[in-house]
Amino acid sequence: MKKLLIVLAMCGLSMGSMAQETTADPVEKYSVATNSFWSNWFVQVGADWNAFYSNQEHGQGLSRSPFKDFRSTPGFSVAIGKWFTPGLGLRTKFSGVWGRTVVDENKHSNHIWTLNENVLFNLSNMLYGYNPNRVWNFVPFVGAGINRNCCADRYAMNLSAGILNTFRVSKHVGIHFELGWNYAEQDLDAVPADGKGGRIWEGKDNKLYAELGLTFNLGKASWDKTPDVDAIKALSQAQIDALNAQLNDANAENARLKNLLAQKKDATAAVKEYVGTPVSVFFNINKSVIASKKDLVNVKNMAEYAKDNNANLLVTGYADSATGKPAYNQKLSEKRAETVANELVKMGVSRDQITTEAKGGVKDLSPISYNRRATVQVK
After folding, report:
1. DSSP annotation string for 141-160
2. Contacts of 186 (CB under 8 A, 6+ apart)
3. How many DSSP H helices and E strands does the chain contain?
4. Angle of helix 267-275 relative to helix 295-309, nearest 10 degrees?
5. For 229-242, what is each residue's pLDDT tens digit?
6. Are residues 181 and 236 in the same domain?
7. Considering the entire predicted model, what is its pTM?
8. What percent of the chain has pLDDT over 70?
9. Secondary structure class of 103 (helix, strand, coil)
10. How far apart are the first and last CA of the chain?
11. Where among 218, 246, 279 does a domain terminate?
């Protein structure tokens, strides 16, 4: 019995290791953004072979007869689950419905089903980084649930553990091969306990199984890279040119603009044309807190200009149209505009000089995540 378990465990670990060596693409590891609740769900259907080993078999030895007809029976399973991160998920699984009451080497059929809740650990993603194109994922799991012996009208609690290997066929379809163990209370088979305890296997009723089936990924089945706020600024060459000019020597540029105003009557128009380029402040998904404080350096230049020249500023908030409903995006863009307006007030700009507006969800920039921003410009 123990030898069989060791062999199954080593096979699972070997297959998992081979999966990483042969299928893991040399891609860069990166953080992923959290998806909505309705993303990354999956459904599994499978057929299994299972062997029942009861507590009444104390001393008979599982290793002597794990594949005997009196022990084994076919079964099926259905499951639904969700990945909350690339490495961690939950699954609710129903399996059954044929079973055995094993007391001797004669067939004693029962109808037994199992309902389990499993915690899934995708070690491939945890150890090697998320890779949407990985062919083979190695997923150990543990859990607990309930069994029912329909013939004896008897329920029993159980613990479960196993190894789930998934093979990618396409983005939404995969094949899975699973090895598992259900460890149930000793009266599941409706045969009174004989008082024999001893080793862990022989104190309870056990079911070992091997399952082959299909996995169907529902809806959004992948994970997006966390937006890089610094990379967002490189989207527009006009934007990056304006930002670089301000960041190189913000104070010196502000002094130059003041000098232009003193020397020429038409300097005001020239300065307004220069500072008329909107300054962008970026936000993370569903957030109204500024993602990078570096953006406030550019906002401060606008604030200094507004104070020195009694100029009015326009703050415009945006959200991306790919996430959230229109009403929610409108509120979010309003909050983003107010956040930047409050920063200008902290910098000494009178609130009377600031006008805010909200555009809601837009898709002006590509990729769509670049639209999570607010802009500041001279009116």
Report:
1. EEEEEEEEETTTTEEEEEEE
2. 54, 55, 193, 203, 204, 205
3. 8, 13
4. 160
5. 666 655 555 566 66
6. no
7. 0.53
8. 69
9. coil
10. 80
11. 218
What pLDDT does 348 receive?
A: 94
pLDDT in tens, 201-224: 556 788 889 999 999 999 888 888
Q: What is the DSSP letter of 215?
A: E
Q: What is the DSSP secondary structure assignment for residue 191, as one 8-state letter? A: S
The one-letter amino acid code at 170 reads: S
Helices 250-263 and 267-275, axial angle in degrees (round to 10): 150
Give the span between the Cα atoms of 118 and 143, in whole angstroms: 4
pLDDT confidence of residue 7: 44
Considering just the CA atoms, what is the radius of gyration of the chain in Å?
32
The structural domain count of the chain equals 2
Could you tell me if residue 307 is inside a domain? yes
Residue 281 reports pLDDT greater than 80? yes
Q: Can you give the pLDDT at residue 20?
A: 39
SS3 207: strand
Pairing of strands 41-53, 154-168: unpaired
For residue 41, the cross-strand partners are 82, 218
| 354 contacts 341 by C-beta, under 8 angstroms | yes
Q: Are residues 91 and 203 in the same domain?
A: yes
- DSSP-assigned states of every residue in 40-72: SEEEEEEEEEEEEE-GGGTTT-GGG-TT-TTTE
Collapse the DSSP code of 194 into the 3-class scheme (helix H, G, I; strand E, B; otherwise coil) and give the result.
coil
Query: Residues 290, 327: contact at Cβ < 8 Å?
Result: no
- Domain co-membership, 192 together with 63: yes
**Structure confidence by residue, pLDDT tens digits, 328-350:** 999 999 999 999 999 999 999 99
* Dihedrals phi, psi of 224, to nearest 5 degrees: -90, 150
Q: Are residues 290 and 168 in the same domain?
A: no
C-alpha 31, offset from chain centre: 10
Question: What one-character DSSP code corresponds to residue 223?
Answer: -
Contact 149, 189 (CB under 8 A): yes
Strand partners, 213: 46, 176
Tokens 């790919």, residue located? 322
The answer to whether 307 and 257 are in contact (CB under 8 A) is: no
Q: Report how far residue 178's alpha carbon sits from residue 167's, in angstroms, rounded to the nearest whole number.
A: 11
Torsion of CA 51, 52, 57, 61, to 10 degrees: 20
What is the 3-state composition of the chain as percent helix, strand, coil, each rounded to the nearest 5?
Answer: 30, 35, 30
* Interaxial angle between packed helices 250-263 and 237-248, expressed in degrees from 0 to 180 and rounded to the nearest 10: 90
DSSP type of residue 169 = S
